[in-house]
């Protein structure tokens, strides 16, 4: 359970820049949230000057605890994110978090981190945590992107990866196909992989979860649902797990054991 | 915040302030303890309870709309028995000083009586009868749009409880004063209005409704002028106290409701956006009283000047 206190903090924009035609990076100064945020958790942000109403959920992409900086990586999907992309340095953003429970970490074996699209964002902090903060074996990182124009992710994860593998939809870089297609080779090369953590589309996570379950590898998935509140009160984000229990993606997740979701 | 100026007795429910957390937007109250001091919350109004647990509606349940949102949660809740056994004791432990109002609905008049009786326990300070959830058959909307049925439910509830009974009205009617008068006559101690307005969003890429339940309930700032108008009309029509809600985001919004004739208010969807809203609104009302040299919030109630 998330035992840390949830906070609302005004974070000024330190920088907000384009990574590709439809993806931006945003650095916010919010030391209090950053000091307690864990890999896999998320924040709900609101541009108080903007025209949208509800907060928007984004995974914690990375943190700089010393400087109190929070990195978010966002796809310009609709009105809220498009308005966000227009904001200049210094603009205030209301940040609520840290929300949800992050990934779990165990002291054995290597981890395979898999991200698809902007689902790669939380993989960055998770990779840093595994390789630097826990000082364990560096994770193997597998990223599924559309084409060679989305290789900007390398700058964020390279240093934390034992090996970085890309798949592209069109074969313009790395292996052509879906992330899941690359897994058998990776597992052959790294038989010490004991955990898989995935954040991406539902189709992607379902396939990978089934593969992991079949191979007896522990797998965690990070889910996405429309959220009004982000802390368990609106019930917009609930689903029924395989055990029959009802879960809130925001409060009980967004990270779940793959068996409970796709088993 | 000067609590003596704000302390309010609402139909026998004693509250620290006249500002409550609205049903379905405030959880069971304790979820907000990181964001505000629960002692400064007028009342916690629970998520709508039903006789049996409900999983709610399938598919997308939340859609943002201009200055508001649609929801079609479908009354997901653990059911009244689990509430009484597991949740209420926890709430009373973590928020011992805050008034607690249980919101509930059923699919028959008898259901309402059974639920009222079960809720007639220590720790529940008042009950809010939901005859206005637009999202499920069992949400009481059939009772909320027919004055005879609304009166029958109110009578049944009154016969099975010793608690103050608040009846929550739907705005999805032609004349809300007809409903208000009917439930007042049937014995309601207070009214709450408004619940959400039925709305719909269509995704023009897929040509499908965005919400899993096709339609949903509209709330947020977009509905405020409608809610203020309805509170004003109902205040002219009845003599029982009114809880006004619908689109309240600031103290200024709340004060409009008070002037229109509500003696208390509740904050709904705004809690999602600013989880300290209930207390911030109360503080703002207090500052307004101070500025206008008023000694108690009740001095604002119904004071709108017409003509
Ligand atoms: C836990 C969680 C973590 C997320 N992390 C990231 C991230 O790191 N980077 C990133 O780019 N995106 C992330 N998303 C998706 C992101 O929240 C949406 O893309 C964003 O809210 C779209 O806002 P908008 O105003 O641009 O779009 P609009 O379509 O105008 O938004 C309208 C409404 O729908 C909701 N919505 C729209 N698309 C989504 C979606 N895919 N998922 C959930 N809600 C949606 C919005 O929050 C808003 O309430 C995450 C979602 C969740 C639930
Ligand atoms: C997500 C959500 C869930 C709700 N659930 C309930 C409910 O269970 N019972 C009820 O009486 N009203 C429910 N409501 C209605 C609110 O209590 C309130 O009447 C309405 O939203 C208008 O207020 P607002 O504009 O401040 O949100 C719900 C509203 C929302 C947004
Ligand atoms: S987003 Fe509101 S309960 Fe999860």
From TrEMBL, chain A:
Domain FAD-binding FR-type: 6-105
Similarity annotation: Belongs to the PyrK family.
PANTHER family: DIHYDROOROTATE DEHYDROGENASE B (NAD(+)), ELECTRON TRANSFER SUBUNIT, DIHYDROOROTATE DEHYDROGENASE B (NAD(+)), ELECTRON TRANSFER SUBUNIT-RELATED
Cross-referenced PROSITE patterns: FAD_FR
Gene: pyrK
Cofactor(s) essential for the protein: FAD; [2Fe-2S] cluster
Residues the record lists as binding FAD: 73-75, 80-81
Protein name: Dihydroorotate dehydrogenase B (NAD(+)), electron transfer subunit
Organism: Anaerovibrio lipolyticus DSM 3074
Pathway: Pyrimidine metabolism; UMP biosynthesis via de novo pathway; orotate from (S)-dihydroorotate (NAD(+) route): step 1/1
Gene Ontology molecular function, alphabetical: 2 iron, 2 sulfur cluster binding; electron transfer activity; flavin adenine dinucleotide binding; metal ion binding; oxidoreductase activity
SUPFAM superfamilies cross-referenced by the UniProt entry: Ferredoxin reductase-like, C-terminal NADP-linked domain, Riboflavin synthase domain-like
Keywords: 2Fe-2S, Electron transport, FAD, Flavoprotein, Iron, Iron-sulfur, Metal-binding, Pyrimidine biosynthesis, Transport
Binding site for [2Fe-2S] cluster: 229, 234, 237, 250
Keyword Iron recorded: yes
A Pfam family per the record: NAD_binding_1
Gene3D superfamilies assigned: Dihydroorotate dehydrogenase, electron transfer subunit, Nucleotide-binding domain of ferredoxin-NADP reductase (FNR) module, Translation factors
Quaternary state and interactors: Heterotetramer of 2 PyrK and 2 PyrD type B subunits.
InterPro entries, sorted: Cbr1-like_FAD-bd_dom, Cyt_c3_hydrogenase_gsu, Dihydroorotate_DH_ele_sf, Dihydroorotate_DH_Fe-S-bd, Dihydroorotate_DHASE_ETsu, FAD-bd_FR_type, FNR_nucleotide-bd, OxRdtase_FAD/NAD-bd
Cofactor note: Binds 1 FAD per subunit. Binds 1 [2Fe-2S] cluster per subunit.
Record's function text: Responsible for channeling the electrons from the oxidation of dihydroorotate from the FMN redox center in the PyrD type B subunit to the ultimate electron acceptor NAD(+).
GO biological process: 'de novo' UMP biosynthetic process
Automatic annotation (TrEMBL), chain B:
Binding-site residues, FMN: 23, 47-48, 103, 130, 168, 194, 220, 246-247
Keywords: Cytoplasm, Flavoprotein, FMN, Oxidoreductase, Pyrimidine biosynthesis
Location(s) in or outside the cell: Cytoplasm
Biological pathway: Pyrimidine metabolism; UMP biosynthesis via de novo pathway
Catalytic activity: (S)-dihydroorotate + A = orotate + AH2
One cellular component (GO) term of this entry: cytoplasm
Lineage: Bacteria, Bacillati, Bacillota, Negativicutes, Selenomonadales
One function term, GO molecular function aspect: dihydroorotate dehydrogenase activity
Annotated protein name in UniProt: Dihydroorotate dehydrogenase
Family: Belongs to the dihydroorotate dehydrogenase family. Type 1 subfamily.
Gene: pyrD
Record text on cofactor binding: Binds 1 FMN per subunit.
Residues of the active site: 133
């Amino acid at each position: 359970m998330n035992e840390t206190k949830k906070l609302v903090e005004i974070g000024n924009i330190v920088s907000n820049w384009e990574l590709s035609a439809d993806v931006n990076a945003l650095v916010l100064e919010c030391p209090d949230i950053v000091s307690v945020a864990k890999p896999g958790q998320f924040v709900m942000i609101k541009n108080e000057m903007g025209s949208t109403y509800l907060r928007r959920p984004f995974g914690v992409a990375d943190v700089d605890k010393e400087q109190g900086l929070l990195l978010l990586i966002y796809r310009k999907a609709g009105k809220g994110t498009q308005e966000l992309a227009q904001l200049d340095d210094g603009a205030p953003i209301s940040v609520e978090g840290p929300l949800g429970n992050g990934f779990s970490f165990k002291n054995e074996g290597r981890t395979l981190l898999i991200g698809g699209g902007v689902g790669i964002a939380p993989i960055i902090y998770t990779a840093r945590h595994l390789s630097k903060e826990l000082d364990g074996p560096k994770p193997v990182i597998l990223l599924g992107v559309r084409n060679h124009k989305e290789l900007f992710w390398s700058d964020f994860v390279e240093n934390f990866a034992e090996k970085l593998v890309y798949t592209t939809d069109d074969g313009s870089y790395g292996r052509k196909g879906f992330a899941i297609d690359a897994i058998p080779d990776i597992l052959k090369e790294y038989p010490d992989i004991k955990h898989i953590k995935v954040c991406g589309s539902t189709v992607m996570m379902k396939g990978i979860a089934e593969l992991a379950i079949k191979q007896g590898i522990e797998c965690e998935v990070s889910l996405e649902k429309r959220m009004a509140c982000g802390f368990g009160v609106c019930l917009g984000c609930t689903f029924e797990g395989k055990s029959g229990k009802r879960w809130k993606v925001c409060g009980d997740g967004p990270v779940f054991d793959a068996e409970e979701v796709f088993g | 915040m000067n609590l003596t100026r704000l302390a309010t007795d609402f139909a026998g429910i004693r509250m620290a302030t006249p500002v409550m957390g609205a049903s379905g937007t405030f959880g069971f109250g304790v979820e907000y303890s990181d964001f505000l001091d629960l002692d400064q919350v007028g009342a916690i109004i629970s998520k709508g309870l039903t006789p049996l647990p409900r999983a709610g509606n399938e598919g997308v349940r939340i859609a943002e709309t201009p200055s508001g949102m649609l929801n079609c949660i479908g009354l997901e809740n653990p059911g009244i028995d689990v509430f009484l056994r597991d949740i209420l004791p926890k709430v009373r432990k973590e928020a011992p000083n805050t008034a607690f109002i249980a919101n509930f609905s059923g699919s028959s008049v008898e259901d309402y009586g059974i639920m009222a009786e079960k809720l007639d326990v220590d720790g529940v300070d008042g009950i809010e009868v939901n005859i206005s959830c637009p999202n499920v058959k069992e949400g009481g909307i059939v009772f909320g749009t027919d004055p005879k049925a609304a009166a029958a439910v109110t009578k049944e509830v009154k016969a099975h409880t010793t608690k103050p009974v608040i009846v929550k009205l739907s705005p999805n009617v032609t004349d809300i004063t007809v409903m208000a008068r009917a439930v007042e006559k049937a014995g309601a101690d207070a009214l709450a209005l408004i619940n959400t307005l039925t709305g719909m969003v269509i995704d023009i890429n897929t040509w499908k409704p965005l919400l899993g339940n096709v339609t949903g309930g509209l709330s947020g700032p977009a509905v405020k002028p409608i809610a203020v108008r309805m509170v004003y009309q109902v205040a002219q029509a009845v003599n029982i106290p009114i809880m006004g809600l619908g689109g309240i985001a600031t103290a200024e919004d709340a004060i409009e409701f008070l002037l229109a004739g509500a003696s208390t208010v509740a904050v709904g969807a705004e809690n999602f956006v600013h989880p300290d809203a209930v207390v911030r609104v109360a503080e703002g009302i207090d500052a307004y009283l101070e500025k206008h040299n008023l000694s108690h919030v009740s001095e604002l109630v119904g004071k709108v000047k017409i003509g």
